[in-house]
Design brief:
- It is a single chain.
- Helix content is about 45%, strand content about 10%.
- The chain is built from nine helices and four strands; from the N terminus they run H-H-E-E-H-H-H-H-H-H-H-E-E.
- Helix 8 crosses helix 9.
- The model is unreliable at about 1-5, about 170-175 and about 180-204 (pLDDT under 50).
């Protein structure tokens, strides 16, 4: 049952909440395990058992309209072939193919290369009073790791990443702005193991 009688408010666009979200997440679990945000028209499911049930009920909580609120609200037609935004049976097929790449043995094989890349990226920053995690490491490491797994030459990996970023039109695919498009109800699960919010549109 959604509790609307308290001052409890969860907003995924509030930087103060994101700086330390755990007190709000605890209140969501204790006071409003099914929380509705009227401002952005989405539901937040916060208890583990509920999140787990939603995660496996892909017919209700689909990924095909996007996995973040901005995409769901935009009404954008997701192009085929993006495993993050797919539902079975296409998702199962592509996940099966990827599982052949991300095997424990393959990951162990590239671990020394990943460590070496991180060392080369971070060693020059030793002694600096600050650094930008995304610009100095985070924007590079995923593509580098994937490139190592797929056997893409290192000199080509940066060019591929830049081409992908150019396709998005900016460094970030999902700028941190509240959605302004017409409403589409969605559910978000703020207590995944990674701490990331999971958004699922309803089928109704």
């Amino acid at each position: 049952m959604t509790d609307t009688t308290t001052d409890l408010y969860y907003d995924p666009y509030d930087f103060e909440i994101d700086a330390d979200p755990y007190p709000i997440w605890k209140r969501l679990r204790d006071e409003a395990p099914l929380y509705y945000n009227a401002k952005y028209d989405f539901y937040a499911v916060s208890r583990f058992d509920d999140v787990e049930r939603c995660s496996v009920d892909w017919r209700t909580h689909i990924s095909g309209k996007g996995s973040v609120l901005e995409l769901i609200k935009s009404g954008l037609e997701i192009p085929p072939g993006n495993i993050l935004f797919e539902d079975p049976p296409a998702h199962d097929l592509h996940r099966g193919l990827l599982s052949r790449v991300f095997t424990p043995k393959r990951m162990l094989d590239v671990e020394p290369k990943v460590r070496e890349f991180c060392r080369r990226s971070l060693d020059p920053l030793v002694g600096a009073d600050k650094f930008d995690f995304i610009a100095d490491l985070g924007a590079q490491m995923p593509m580098r790791t994937i490139g190592m797994l797929l056997g893409i030459p290192e000199e080509d990996q940066e060019a591929i990443r830049e081409r992908i970023d150019a396709g998005f039109g900016s460094r970030s695919a999902y700028p941190r702005e509240p959605p302004t498009m017409p409403s589409t109800r969605a559910r978000t699960s703020p207590t995944t193991s990674s701490g990331a919010r999971r958004i699922r549109p309803t089928t109704s």
